[in-house]
Amino acid sequence: MTVELESGTRIRALEMRELECFLVLAEELHFGRTAERLYLSQSRVSQLLRSLEGRIGARLVDRTSRRVTLTPLGARFLTGLRPAYGTLADVVDEARAAARCVTGHLRLGFLGSASHRMTAALGLFHERHPQVATSVVEIPMADPFGPVRRAEVDAAVVMLPVCEPDLALGPRFEKQPWRLALAAGHPLVRRGRLDAEDLAAVPLIASAPPAPDYWRDHHAPRRTPSGRTIPRGPLVATLQEGLASAAAGLGGMLLCRPTAEIHVRADLAFVPVTGLPPNELVLVRGKESDTALLRALTAAVADTGCETHTAPDVCP
């Protein structure tokens, strides 16, 4: 570990191992016993001492064949170092203890609907860490990543793909087939099952900005697999806006099967669609927000049977 001390325009680096070695040597006044206490070789102790003396620019220890003593400068340095080193060690110990202790308030965002797997993961997390207050927050379809970036939630379960350099991906949830939400009286409902090529016959309801274009186009594709144009329907900010638009006959909306099952209503039909890559959810967090709380959440999500994310998706 290196500590950098700024003095004027100069930066002086001090290695913690060098300071620790000097403190033990000042107590033992014996290179052999110092090496034993630090689990080092005597030559390594000598090397650390020389390095520290080189940084300071003067000898701190006098060594003869019979005895080891501190120089006057070494004694003065020891007097100032002991309390400073102790304070720093206490700060590090407190930080380590805080990192191991999972406490606080966890805010988990979700997109569309809180799936069974997500609620199961939250239940497992709360069982393991009952002292943590947990809450769930719905994320708008028009801004799937913004709440994480603005720290409105600690993490979120969102649909892939996620090609955001400032976000880290955690475990994936199980893959789900697609359903097309249509007005109950729409002619395509009578088919009972649709192919991706059939999407060319219905405007697709899509998320509004600021959702990224690549993300919006993945969930409301502009072309069928064969290249036929899919008309663009209304742009919506939330799932409920999309469902209302579909029920009003303004277009169709692609949803994963669990979301469709949760939102069954008389004025909508949810028709299975084949020929598209499956829908997949993933846990995301800010890349710089690696805390004990989020590590515990990630473990709970993974332990409910989710897949571990090992490689980024290919992004445009």
Helices, by number, come to: 10
Q: Low-confidence parts, pLDDT < 50 over ≥5 residues?
A: 1-13, 307-314
Q: What class, by secondary structure content?
A: alpha/beta
CATH class of the largest domain: Mainly Alpha
Fraction of residues in helix: 25-40%
Stated plainly, the CATH topology of the largest domain is called Arc Repressor Mutant, subunit A
Number of strands: 15
Main sheet: strands, sense, barrel: 5 strands, mixed
Number of domains: 3
**Shape from CA axes?**
rod-shaped
- N-end to C-end Cα span: 40 Å
Under CATH, the homologous superfamily of the largest domain reads Winged helix-like DNA-binding domain superfamily/Winged helix DNA-binding domain
Q: Estimate the strand proportion.
A: 15-25%
Q: From N to C, what is the helix and strand string?
A: EEHHHEEHEHEHEEEEEHEHEHEEH
Question: What is the CATH architecture descriptor of the largest domain?
Answer: Orthogonal Bundle
The overall pLDDT average reads 86
| Rg, alpha carbons | 30 Å
What is the strand arrangement across the widest sheet? Answer: 6-5-7-15-8
